[in-house]
Amino acid sequence: MQFFEDLDKQMRHKRGPNGEPSANDFQIHDLFRIIERFADEWDTLPELIPGRPDYRILIGTGIVVSRFAVIGQLANDDAVELVQLDGERRRHRRHRCCDSEYLPVALIDDNAHKAKRKILGVPMAGNRSALPTVFTAYGADVLLIAMPSAVRVQCTRLSRTWLCQRSTRGCYN
Amino acid sequence: MLITMAQKVWTSQELELMTPAEQDSLFEAGLVRNLDEAPKDFIDRVRARFLERLERGELTTK
User: Fold this and answer.
1) Contact present, B53 and A78 (Cβ < 8 Å)
2) Nearest to A29 by CA among B32, B13, B47
């Protein structure tokens, strides 16, 4: 059964530390609904390969996966067999990227509408006038400048006049 | 476009608190029934893998 081999390869066997769903969760929450759709709606599902109505595809965001594509094959006895799964697990958002050594502790933005808000749990510390206090208040030691529209002079001014004096590790843009 | 939208990240525990009807609605809302509405790169990847397997004889018309 190629479908279940796909499932084993693409879904984790156990739930993740933050409640990330397992293959079993996928079967409980998504797979039985997928099977229902193939059984009830075969004739209306799109053909994966035009001219091959014996292979149809169901696509969706799913409940426990960020997206899935399942291909079903119609047999001579009118039974439908699921023959391929392409799924992508939902990624739980974390502040620290698994590939990065940096952990965001505060955000600076001159847009007043963003004041006092949080983005993915990271507090908006204020506009650039708040920069001097951010390092002490939030324990930051690195500043990352993400201003695509800023010209080099602005970045240099920010980093030299405000930040590098207070940063123990430096500035990056 | 449904496939690319960012939905809430449901944990297993949260899902267990939802009723079957709520889960049905969530699942139904995420279905894409027109391939033109799905990301082309995703469909191309799925189709390419399928055709490779078909060519290798792993899938045979019954």
Assistant:
1) no
2) B13
Band (A35; pLDDT cuts 50, 70, 90): very high
Alpha-carbon span A133 to A125, nearest angstrom:
9
Under 8 Å between Cβ of B27 and A33: yes
Residue of B46, B47, B55, B58 to mutate for A, most A C-beta atoms under 10 A: B46
pLDDT under 50: residue ranges of chain B: 1-7
Cα distance between residue A6 and residue B50, in whole Å: 12
Please give the Cα distance from A16 to A1 (Å, whole number): 26
pLDDT score at A86: 93
Q: Which residues contact A4 (CB under 8 A, 6 or more apart)?
A: none
Strand, coil or helix: B13: helix
Residues making up chain A, counted from first to last: 173
The ipTM, to two decimals, is 0.83
pLDDT of residue A13: 84
- CB A97, CB A74: distance < 8 Å: no
- A49-91: per-residue pLDDT in tens? 988 999 999 998 888 887 899 999 998 888 899 999 998 765 5
Which one of A44, A49, A63 has the shortest CB-CB distance to B26? A63
C-beta atoms of A61 and B23 within 8 A: no
Residues in contact with B30: Cβ distance below 8 Å, sequence separation at least 6, in sequence order: A60, A61, A62, A63, B2, B7
Best mutation target, B2, B3, B41, to test chain A (most A CBs within 10 A): B3
